[in-house]
């Protein structure tokens, strides 16, 4: 059950990103979870309820998980496939000489935040904080 | 108003990864080989380490960090071989992370250190997510477990470079099929190097220890080459 540690990291990243963006609240956090990340999405969603409570800007933030299945590229076939079950073997020829191109992700992909309008007190406005995506780049 | 800000680092475990990268460059600079032992509870990490340290005594400058949820029992067992050992009591946390390793390092890191063992918490799930700056992770699988463990816990086998099949003396006492276990493991990690050991009979321990010493030598040689400015080796292939 390391999902609580993972959830606490997500909350920390979201809160710090909100501070940098000058936002008052995080509305939504999108996280991609790869099949080979070693993280269970249900356990992570459960842990999130506890983790977000510790960060003032994340109290009501929704966690959206995007599950990314394992994909491999086979240099012999020259194609990307879903691998054979329980392996990284090429889905077409069965070769194990493949490269994993997706499925290792554990990334905060994007945040949706709200800002308080300090000037006239008109209330919160939605905004999006751009996040750089690492890993899981689809193969050409 | 939508107002994009500075992009932030987006890997969830970026903070752990930064600490792990610092550890890795520390070992790189000094030519220290770092080996992370992972397995389910009871596969025999501490016993394998005892037999290994016994054979390494006087041959290499090694240190050991051993993680457990509670108690210092493993450190007591491992400190009989003349190497510095430090127990990391995680207090219930199910894995070691790079911050824990960093915090306890001073107890075992001597200036002439050549080899660092990290004995992770017994768990096939959580340790897989945390880089500790190791050169290689070795996953232990005992013959008293299911030979389908690599199918059930693919991430930890995928992230290991070595598999040690332990308790070979008990082969036949259960339905564990060695070929099936190795086949499953290589299906998810084709490059896996496999050792077959028994700490009771001593089978395979010399081969395993010999491999470790080879890795220590290779790491030291690579570091000396970099220090001497030998060009063209890194990334040559």
Automatic annotation (TrEMBL), chain A:
<feature type="binding site">
    <location>
        <position position="2"/>
    </location>
    <ligand>
        <name>Ni(2+)</name>
    </ligand>
</feature>
<protein>
    <recommendedName>
        <fullName>Hydrogenase maturation factor HypA</fullName>
    </recommendedName>
</protein>
<keyword id="KW-0479">Metal-binding</keyword>
<feature type="binding site">
    <location>
        <position position="90"/>
    </location>
    <ligand>
        <name>Zn(2+)</name>
    </ligand>
</feature>
<dbReference type="Pfam" id="PF01155">
    <property type="entry name" value="HypA"/>
</dbReference>
<keyword id="KW-0533">Nickel</keyword>
<feature type="binding site">
    <location>
        <position position="93"/>
    </location>
    <ligand>
        <name>Zn(2+)</name>
    </ligand>
</feature>
<feature type="binding site">
    <location>
        <position position="77"/>
    </location>
    <ligand>
        <name>Zn(2+)</name>
    </ligand>
</feature>
<feature type="binding site">
    <location>
        <position position="74"/>
    </location>
    <ligand>
        <name>Zn(2+)</name>
    </ligand>
</feature>
<feature type="region of interest" description="Disordered">
    <location>
        <begin position="116"/>
        <end position="140"/>
    </location>
</feature>
<comment type="function">
    <text>Involved in the maturation of [NiFe] hydrogenases. Required for nickel insertion into the metal center of the hydrogenase.</text>
</comment>
<keyword id="KW-0862">Zinc</keyword>
<dbReference type="InterPro" id="IPR000688">
    <property type="entry name" value="HypA/HybF"/>
</dbReference>
<comment type="similarity">
    <text>Belongs to the HypA/HybF family.</text>
</comment>
From TrEMBL, chain B:
<keyword id="KW-0547">Nucleotide-binding</keyword>
<keyword id="KW-0479">Metal-binding</keyword>
<dbReference type="InterPro" id="IPR004392">
    <property type="entry name" value="Hyd_mat_HypB"/>
</dbReference>
<comment type="similarity">
    <text>Belongs to the SIMIBI class G3E GTPase family. HypB/HupM subfamily.</text>
</comment>
<dbReference type="InterPro" id="IPR027417">
    <property type="entry name" value="P-loop_NTPase"/>
</dbReference>
<feature type="domain" description="CobW/HypB/UreG nucleotide-binding">
    <location>
        <begin position="36"/>
        <end position="194"/>
    </location>
</feature>
<dbReference type="InterPro" id="IPR003495">
    <property type="entry name" value="CobW/HypB/UreG_nucleotide-bd"/>
</dbReference>
<keyword id="KW-0533">Nickel</keyword>
<protein>
    <submittedName>
        <fullName>Hydrogenase nickel incorporation protein HypB</fullName>
    </submittedName>
</protein>
<keyword id="KW-0862">Zinc</keyword>
<keyword id="KW-0342">GTP-binding</keyword>
<dbReference type="Pfam" id="PF02492">
    <property type="entry name" value="cobW"/>
</dbReference>
<keyword id="KW-0378">Hydrolase</keyword>
């Amino acid at each position: 059950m390391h999902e609580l540690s993972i959830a606490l990291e997500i909350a920390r990243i979201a809160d710090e990103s909100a501070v940098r963006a000058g936002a008052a609240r995080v509305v939504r956090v999108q996280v991609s979870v790869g099949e080979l990340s070693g993280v269970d999405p249900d356990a992570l969603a459960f842990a999130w309820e506890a983790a977000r409570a510790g960060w003032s800007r994340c109290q009501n933030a929704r966690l959206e998980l995007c599950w990314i299945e394992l994909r491999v590229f086979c240099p012999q076939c020259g194609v990307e496939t879903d691998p054979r079950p329980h392996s990284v073997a090429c889905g077409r020829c069965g070769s194990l000489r493949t490269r994993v191109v997706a499925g290792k992700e554990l990334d905060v992909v994007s945040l949706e935040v709200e800002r308080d309008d300090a000037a006239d007190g008109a209330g919160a406005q939605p905004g999006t904080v751009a996040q750089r995506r690492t890993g899981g780049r689809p193969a050409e | 108003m939508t107002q994009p800000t500075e992009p932030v680092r987006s890997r969830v475990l970026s903070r752990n990864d930064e600490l792990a990268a610092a550890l890795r460059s520390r070992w790189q600079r000094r030519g220290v080989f770092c080996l992370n032992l992972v397995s389910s509870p009871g596969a025999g990490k501490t016993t394998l380490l005892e037999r290994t340290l016994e054979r390494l005594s006087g041959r290499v400058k090694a240190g050991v960090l051993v993680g457990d949820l509670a108690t210092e029992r493993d450190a007591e067992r491992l400190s009989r071989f003349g190497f510095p050992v430090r127990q990391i009591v995680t207090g219930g946390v199910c894995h070691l992370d790079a911050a824990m390793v960093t915090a306890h390092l001073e107890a075992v890191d001597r200036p002439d250190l050549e080899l660092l063992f990290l004995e992770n918490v017994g768990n096939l799930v959580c340790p897989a997510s945390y880089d500790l700056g190791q050169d290689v992770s070795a996953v232990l699988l005992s013959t008293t477990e299911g030979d389908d463990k690599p199918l059930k816990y693919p991430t930890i086998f995928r992230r290991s470079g070595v598999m040690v099949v332990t308790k070979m003396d008990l082969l036949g006492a259960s339905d564990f099929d060695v070929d099936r276990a190795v086949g499953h493991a290589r299906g998810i990690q084709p490059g896996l190097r496999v050792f077959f050991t028994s700490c009771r009979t001593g089978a395979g321990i010399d081969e395993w220890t010999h491999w470790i010493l080879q890795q220590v030598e290779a790491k030291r040689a690579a570091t000396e080459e970099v220090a001497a400015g030998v060009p063209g080796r890194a990334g040559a292939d």
